[in-house]
Amino acid sequence: MMLPVQHASQLAVRPPDQHWLVEQLWADEAVGILGGEPKCGKSFLALQMGVAVASGAPCLGRFAVSRPGRVLVFPAEDALHIVRHRLDALCSTADLELADIDLQVITAPRLRLDLDADRQALAETVAHHQPKLLVLDPFVRLHRVDENASQQVAPLLAFLRELQRQHNLAVLVVHHARKGAANCRAGQALRGSSEFHAWGDSNLYLRRKGETTTLTVEHRAAPSIPDLALRLATCDSRVALEIIDAPDHVSPLPPSPQQRVENVLAEATTPLSIKELRQACRIRTSTLCHVMAVLADTGRITKTEAGYQITSE
């Protein structure tokens, strides 16, 4: 039996407004990783994205969901009453009622992607419920393979990719970062095989420093947005991750080499040599010589036997 083949010009073209499931955060029908260190809010962000997709409310209060739909979540690590409490709090923050949004929870005590029976059960569940987004949290509870072995991890991720293609849904997998990887590039900090990073169409990474969590976004086929600073905001029954906006003021740009030379000469009480200027301005000799030539040509500086000085007006 031959594989189906289609001329490239006949492939479906997707309108620009359908490129995103969550604007700028998660591509439509994308598979990917939401990764990060322990206790940095991975599960919370996964549920917050689920609430946004199920309701159409902006994720993190900013990123639009233009075509909301059913969300299916398997919380493998948290007790179901904790999941309910978090979802109630997230809905309250968005002025929603949990009962009014189409968010379904798989309540099975176990789901292992390395077992044929469990893969079949998940495939049938997805086929029946037809979610737009499937959230699996976390990956470490979904198997008993060696996460460092590419040949063991790849088939599990391939199965999820197959689900995505068969049922036109997005798949978000929560995964842990390696210990001691704070200085690594976000995707390289994921625990286990490099398959995780390579697999994702859209990937999100959380890193915590003090009370602030940084969110890094990567996409396979779209530009990524700058990193975002997040914090967990609480007020009565309302709990949600929110974006910490940068201050309104803009830090001044550092002075140019020419400005640095002029400032040093203006503050000097005696003429300065090229060597003294280079040490004071901390710029390369070639750059300094170019700047000095420009300043001399424009009459801004004067050369004396003792060195250079600002031209007196």
Give an overview of the whole structure.
It is a single chain. The protein has helices spanning 42-55, 80-93, 116-129, 150-167, 195-199, 257-267, 274-281, 285-297, and strands at residues 20-22, 26-27, 31-36, 71-75, 103-105, 133-137, 170-176, 202-209, 212-219, 228-235, 238-243, 301-304, 307-310. It has 313 residues and is an alpha/beta fold. It folds into two domains: 15-243, P-loop containing nucleotide triphosphate hydrolases (Rossmann fold, 3-Layer(aba) Sandwich); 257-310, Winged helix-like DNA-binding domain superfamily/Winged helix DNA-binding domain (Arc Repressor Mutant, subunit A), CATH 1.10.10.10. The chain starts with 19 loop residues before the first strand and ends with a strand. The model has no long low-confidence stretch (mean pLDDT 89).
Question: What is the compact description of this entry?
Answer:
The protein has about 325 residues and is of the alpha/beta class.
The Rg value, from CA coordinates, equals 28 Å
Largest sheet: 9 strands, mixed
Amount of beta strand: 15-25%
Identify the CATH class of the largest domain: Alpha Beta
Strand order of the largest sheet: 5-4-6-7-3-8-9-10-11
Along the chain, the helix and strand elements come as: EEEHEHEHEHEHEEEEHHHEE
Number of domains: 2
Stretches with pLDDT under 50, minimum 5 residues: none
CATH superfamily of the largest domain: P-loop containing nucleotide triphosphate hydrolases
Count of beta strands: 13
Structural class of the secondary elements?
Answer: alpha/beta
Shape: elongated
* CATH fold-level name of the largest domain: Rossmann fold
What's the mean pLDDT score? 89
Report how far the terminal alpha carbons are from each other.
89 Å
